[in-house]
Design a protein that fits this description.
It contains 18 helices and two strands. It is an all-alpha fold and 448 residues long. It has one domain: Amino acid/polyamine transporter I, CATH 1.20.1740. A two-stranded antiparallel sheet has the order 1-2. The structure holds phenylalanine (PHE).
Length: 448
Amino acid sequence: MKSQPQWSNRSVFLLAAVGSAVGLGNIWKFPYIVGENGGGAFILVYLFCIALVGIPVLIAEILIGKTAQANPVSAFENLAGKFKASRFWVIFGFIGIITGFLILSFYSVVAGWALEYLAVFLQNDLAGAAPEQVKNHFADLLKSPSQLLFWHSIFMLLTILIVAKGVNQGIEKVISLAMPALFLILIILVIYASQQAGFSEALAYLFTPDFSLISTETTLIALGHAFFTLSLGMGAMMVYGSYLSKNTAVVRLSLSIALIDTLVALLAGLAIFPLIFTYGLEPSSGPSLLFISLPNALLALPFGQFFGIAFFLLLLIAALSSAISILEPVVRFVEQKTQLTRRISAWLMGIIIWLIGISALLAFNEWAEVKLFGRNIFDSLDFLTTNILLPLGGLGISLFATWVLASKSNILSSLGIGNLAYKIWYWLAAIVAPAVILMIAWNGLFIS
Ligand code: PHE
């Protein structure tokens, strides 16, 4: 019997969970989807999704993990057995494991871009480059399978090495160094951005809502992103929760995670958009916002190289602390279900994910024409996980935590809240969140 790891203390759990939540989603994706979907109005819808769906599901997910003290599949298995519920719930554990594989495979490719840009800024390779050249740099990177493969491999290697070392020796150690560095860099970048001419324009853009821009599609994007950014629906938070001691109350911790995650996303917007506006660029340039528009702006600004390094280092730290939390549930599952050691499980699972990642990176070049439902492989992986599998996993998690766990046992002390707060959570997690997920998923499947 392999022993169950425990976090050294609650603060480390909080840092690790924030590290999981804060990632490419906050710093790369959030700013560009805000840009594509019209700024302030989208942010408002997103905040609603976080409050009404994200937080209740986050509480549910950590609660299940902490109660079961096991990987996502065993968690559903054991608790369903204990409370005499249907074995069918285990499906949600498996969905989580599969989703983990799929997310990390394309996540690592994008994290690889961050590594490449970090190298470029460190060597000052783009100094004096014209906007056209900066654009070509990104295009050339995407066109080169060997370069993409190189950076994807390095990133996966880092992730595997950390997870292979285990919860205390690997994840905790890295997180305790990485997260303070992340906050420090982010604050420096926001101060830098606030000194630029475009700062007030960025504030207006981020915080003035125009409701005519809200549609079913933007709502679906906001909901999917709420899941993605809080690392919900695939067992990352569940497995991190399983390393909490049984008497830790989870509601306060969950609120802190969601609050910090949202703050970081907004701060990332405040660090990026002022530079974009100062340089007179369009905020709606999509995924290339960070890899073409931002470098162009940085190159034109004083101390651009230095802040470029800071920026891509921030992106890398954020990506790495999330990637380990995507690999962890998968590895913990294999470690608990087989005779394999953690080290072997981490390498084995990491290599399979690395291989799937190769098909994601080929979508930008050799396999650009390979389409699944009208999307290339990379976009399909993103869409399938973010907009379908994570919400589906979240649905199972919130239903299980309320209908099974909460109705068959007394979980008040596990949550650490009073009766009224409990009723609100229960109502949100048992009815509101599932209804919103189903409604939006239904619409989403038919409009896209
Ligand atoms: N929350 C991470 C981000 O915003 C991504 C992630 C998704 C991590 C799912 C774990 C699980 O980048």
